[in-house]
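__Record contents__

***
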Amino acid sequence: RGVTEEQVDPDDFMAATYARAMAHRQPLYAAMARNWGVTVKADDVARVRSAADFTELVAAALEMRG
């Protein structure tokens, strides 16, 4: 928009693009969390060491949610 490729600061471009993308996605992520999200404790996440641990953590959270 009125600037050449050489005039674009890559850091400024990425910061602006990222902020705009997150603003667009935030309500979508909030809806997903509201409908399908689970809550886990940080100390439980810290103990995850494998994909199987992660699966067990999420499965336990789903069971608690009902």
DSSP finds three helices and no strands in the chain. The two ends are 51 Å apart (CA to CA).
